[in-house]
Amino acid sequence: MKILAFAGSTSSTSINRELVKFVLKDFQNDEINLIDLNDFDMPVFSVDREKKGFPDAAHHFLKVIEDCHVIICSLAEHNKSYTAAFKNVFDWASRINVKVFQNKPMLLMSTSPGGYGGGNVMNTAKTFFPQFGADIKETFSLPKFYENFDLESGVIDPEMLKELKKKIESFKVQVTN
Ligand SMILES: Cc1cc2nc3c(=O)[nH]c(=O)nc-3n(C[C@H](O)[C@H](O)[C@H](O)COP(=O)(O)O)c2cc1C
């Protein structure tokens, strides 16, 4: 199975990327394409710029989605919503193909240092990603990242770890059947 994985962040110390990497350890027999949104840097979307054509990176983002079987991602939350970096890639790509996620099964996650774990961006994505072709199979938000996650060993809290593992297993069952 080909997995496209990404964090909705361009931070070099992204905690969402750490969460994605932790989850990917459970997919060691699969082909993983962990992309970095920094490689999809584009001008801020505008309808005027769009008239001059689409950046290659927008096409590339859609292509990496086309080439995968499933998507595993974790969204960073800025001011209760998507980061500007993710939103920009999303906006450009949606103008080429509104079904950005191309009906691929998705494990959708979020984390933040706060107690809601990026729950606002999660709620937005959970509500609206399906309109953009995401087939969301499971969701998981990790609150208080710096208390609940160790960079070496991953999720620390036993209950949260149990919940995450359950969702990973459920995701696997749903995408392999
Ligand atoms: C501009 C800005 C706005 C933020 N807004 C929120 C927010 O609304 N909710 C939240 O939980 N954390 C917020 N944070 C904290 C981020 O969750 C934190 O920086 C986290 O590390 C971002 O994820 P990343 O490390 O994967 O980029 C904000 C951070 C920045 C820089």
From TrEMBL:
Entry's Gene Ontology cellular component terms: cytosol
Protein name per the record: NAD(P)H-dependent FMN reductase
Membrane-traversing stretches: none
Species annotation: Chryseobacterium taeanense
Lineage: superkingdom: Bacteria
GO molecular function: FMN binding; oxidoreductase activity
InterPro entries (alphabetical): Flavoprotein-like_sf, FMN_Rdtase-like_dom, NAD(P)H-dep_reductase
NADPH-dependent FMN reductase-like domain segment(s): 1-141
Lineage: Bacteria, Pseudomonadati, Bacteroidota, Flavobacteriia, Flavobacteriales
